[in-house]
Write a structure and sequence with these properties.
Elements lengths: L5 H15 L4 H5 L3 H8 L2 H4 L1 E4 L5 H11 L4 E5 L10 H9 L4 E7 H4 L4 H4 L5 E5 L7 H4 L16 E5 H4 L2 H7 L6 E5 L5 E2 L1 H9 L6 E9 L10 E2 L5 E8 L1 H5 L2 E2 L5 E5 L3 E4 L5 E5 L7 H8 L7 E5 L7 H4 L8 H5 L19 E4 L5 H11 L24 E4 L7 H10 L2 E4 L2 H10 L5 H10 L1
Parallel strand pairs: 1-2, 2-3, 3-4, 4-5, 5-6, 6-8, 7-8, 8-10, 9-11, 10-12, 14-15, 15-16, 16-17, 17-18
Antiparallel strand pairs: 12-13
């Protein structure tokens, strides 16, 4: 272990301090002389400072002194701010705020700092207890008198919704430099969707976005309210009321991972784009889903498992490309609310597990099946503007409707077609030589 380069040891020790706290270092110093020298000569190890009610004030002051001018990573709990014994240490880290590179702090502590001292060094900020009183006057003091020629260093931001929803703080924190944004909302207050969209419009290059505990007002957004997040790769929506309103207003053509909780929706495909929705929609959500799909041109796999797809048009109006998924997929203007043109032009696999209209499904396959002819919906041939012939696999309730000829036609237009009816499922088990007894036993046990 003596031959390990000091910089490698320092990196390993840093992981230890981030995991177990500063108490990790004293035992390390006792291992050998060389390790002790690495700890002594690496100030940034001491720059990982955690202040809680259990912290020792004198030890913290010694730690701050050892950190010297090294970059600081700060963790402070709100309760620690009320301790007199910790007051000198709190004052010390505030004085060193120009050295902060990462901070998880209560809003009341952030109010003691100044943005002019943080903006050029702070890379990661997580604000806790953000419902406390704002002090914009002190925090932004001097920032307008000394404008910077470069954008803030801040890349990763996690804030309470009440905190972010404040015009002046929004303008300084939410910038095109933000790559990770985590918004935690209130459990009670309803907010307009426009406020979130306005915030997202200020972070067009965000790559990871998480939105939690926000209750939107039950008002359908206007079509023009669309935020384009072309760099977004991961989107998490957790305990958000009316999530379809939010999703239908975000265009994220390169999205790889979509998670919506507590609804059972999870899409994690590092190299593919897929979306699976299982029993998590109402009929009223379908138009918003279509508008969301219109902003996913790279979607390759779409699985919809929901009885609401078989709604009665007598109660909800006739099928159109705005309220019916299959009609939208068969329409040359199905994506007009997003990128325009055909809905999901890269679609390779379509899984519809509901008692839908067979004719509507056949219309989609005739137009978009990989083995179909190059004709548009109006019957004219046009390779340039015709429907995309990418659909290779169809999984649906095929045997229940249609004639034998129409079912054979559907199967001929794609590479694979699977029927989800009970008879076909049992037949598939038999043809492949697999036993169905275990499946029957599981159904009986769970049934």
């Amino acid at each position: 272990m003596i031959d390990i380069p000091p910089e490698i040891l320092a990196s390993a020790f840093e992981v230890g301090v981030l995991t177990w706290g500063i108490c990790y270092l004293p035992p390390i110093c006792l291992v050998c002389k060389e390790w002790n020298q690495v700890v002594i000569n690496t100030p940034h190890l001491w720059g990982i400072i955690e202040i809680t009610t259990n912290s020792d004030g004198k030890f913290l002051l010694d730690q701050i002194a050892r950190a010297k001018a090294a970059p600081l990573t700060i963790f402070v709990t709100k309760d620690a701010l009320n301790s007199r014994s910790l007051a000198p240490a709190i004052k010390g880290i505030v004085a060193l705020s120009p050295n902060w590179i990462a901070a998880t702090v209560p809003q009341t502590l952030l109010n003691r700092c100044r943005w002019i001292n943080l903006r050029d060094s702070l890379l990661e900020l997580s604000i806790t207890n953000a419902s406390d009183t704002l002090d914009s006057l002190h925090f932004f003091d001097g920032i307008t008198q000394t404008p910077s020629l470069r954008p803030p260093a801040l890349r990763h931001l996690s804030v309470d919704y009440t905190y972010v929803y404040h015009g002046e703080w929004d303008d300084y924190f939410l910038t095109p430099s933000i790559q990770t944004l985590n918004i935690n909302g209130s459990n009670y207050d309803q907010v307009p969707l426009s406020s979130t969209l306005d915030q997202l419009s200020k972070t067009p290059n965000v790559r990871q976005l998480s939105i939690h505990h926000i209750h939107y007002q039950p008002i359908l957004p206007e079509r023009s309210m669309v935020v384009y997040l072309d760099s977004l790769l991961s989107l998490t929506v957790d305990w958000v009321e009316f999530p379809s309103f939010l999703l239908s207003s975000i265009s994220c053509r390169n999205l790889k991972s979509l998670t919506i909780d507590p609804c059972p929706i999870r899409v994690v495909q590092p190299q593919a784009s897929s979306l699976k929705l299982e029993e998590c929609m109402n009929v009223e959500d379908i138009p918003n889903l279509i508008r969301f799909l219109a902003r996913l041109p790279n979607l390759a796999v779409l699985a919809l498992i929901s009885d609401v797809l078989d709604y009665c048009p007598e109660y909800y109006g006739p099928y159109t490309d705005e309220n019916d998924i299959l009609t939208a997929l068969a329409s040359p203007t199905g994506a007009r609310s997003g990128i325009g043109g055909w809905l999901c032009p890269s679609l390779r696999e379509l899984d519809i597990e509901a008692e839908i209209s067979f004719q509507h499904l056949l219309d989609v396959v005739v137009l978009r099946g990989c083995n179909s002819h190059d004709v548009e919906s109006n019957g004219t041939s046009d390779l340039a503007t015709g429907p995309p012939k990418t659909l290779q696999t169809v999984i649906a309730y095929i045997c229940g409707e249609g004639t034998k000829e129409s079912r054979e036609q559907l199967r001929s237009l794609v590479e694979e077609a699977y029927c989800t009816c009970t008879g076909c499922c049992f037949e598939n088990f038999t043809l492949t030589g697999e036993s169905i007894f275990l499946d029957i036993e599981m159904i009986l046990l769970t049934g």
